Every structure is written in structure tokens, then in C-alpha cells.
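Example for tutorial group B:
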């Protein structure tokens, strides 16, 4: 199942894009807040990188679900903080949300398919978590893209 780490690597790239967008905003009016967002993006990127390594070694459904949850968090972080970033950072923020949501979308069917081999309670918890992550990531992408489905760059 080493091909599983590919989608998770997209989540890592999404974290890098958000971090780059935040780094480019140094000196912005809300720089302290943006620095916190940058640190959170870095932390999520590190978590996803570690999960990618775990997925290469043993892609358990728990690892994949955790990666999906991290990516949903990342998409939300991008979408909720896009208005505080300079307009030229908007394409990076939108792409970060899209990549993170895409990772959730790629992992969800794998988790759903594999959950049939688990006990009912464990499967129910994983499915609830991955479906919630999918909904949150999709919603965050819509927010990041703005009303017209495009980047918020204006």
C-alpha cells in the first residue's frame, strides 16, 4: 500500500503552500496572527509528513483517517485565514485548500472500503471521522474559492 503515501504527500504540499503564503505576508497588518497560522501550517505539514512515512510502512486505516483529519484541518486553516493574507497570496491559499481537500477525497474511499474488515464500533468511528473530514474540507475549499468558484484574489 505504498501508493497511499502519494495523496498524503499532496497534503504535505498543501501545508507548504499555506506556510509560503503566510511567510509572504510579513509586515502585513495582522502579521502576529498570520505568524500563528504559519506555525500551525508547519505543524500540520510535519504531522502529515510523519503519517506519510507510517503509510509507506503500514497503511493502517487509523493512519489514513488521521491524515484525512489533518488535511481537513489544513483546508479550514487556509480558508478561515485567507482574508487576512495579502491578495497575491490568495492563489496559494486556494490551492492549499484544494490540495488538502483532494487528499481527503482520495483517502476516503480507501478507508470506507477497508472498514468492512474492522469490528463494527471501530469502523463506525473511522467512517464518521472521514466523512466529517470530507465535509469540512469540501466546505473550506468553497470558502477559499469564494462566491464565483475562483481564488479570492479579487
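The residue assignment follows.
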Amino acid at each position: 500500500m505504498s501508493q497511499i503515501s502519494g495523496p498524503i504527500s499532496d497534503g504535505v504540499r498543501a501545508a507548504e503552500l499555506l506556510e509560503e503564503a503566510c511567510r509572504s505576508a510579513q509586515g502585513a497588518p495582522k502579521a502576529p496572527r498570520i505568524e500563528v497560522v504559519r506555525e500551525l501550517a508547519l505543524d500540520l505539514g510535519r504531522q502529515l509528513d510523519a503519517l506519510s512515512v507510517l503509510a509507506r510502512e503500514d497503511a493502517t486505516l487509523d493512519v489514513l483517517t488521521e491524515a484525512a483529519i489533518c488535511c481537513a484541518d489544513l483546508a479550514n486553516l487556509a480558508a478561515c485565514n485567507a482574508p487576512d493574507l495579502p491578495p497575491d497570496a490568495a492563489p496559494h491559499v486556494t490551492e492549499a485548500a484544494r490540495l488538502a481537500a483532494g487528499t481527503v477525497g482520495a483517502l476516503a474511499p480507501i478507508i470506507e472500503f477497508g472498514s468492512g474488515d474492522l469490528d463494527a464500533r471501530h469502523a463506525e468511528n473511522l467512517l464518521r471521522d472521514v466523512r466529517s473530514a470530507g465535509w469540512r474540507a469540501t466546505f473550506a475549499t468553497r470558502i477559499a474559492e469564494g462566491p464565483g468558484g475562483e481564488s479570492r484574489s479579487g
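Residues 2-145 form a domain with the Four Helix Bundle (Hemerythrin (Met), subunit A) fold (CATH 1.20.120.680). Compare this with the pattern of hydrophobic and polar residues in the output above.
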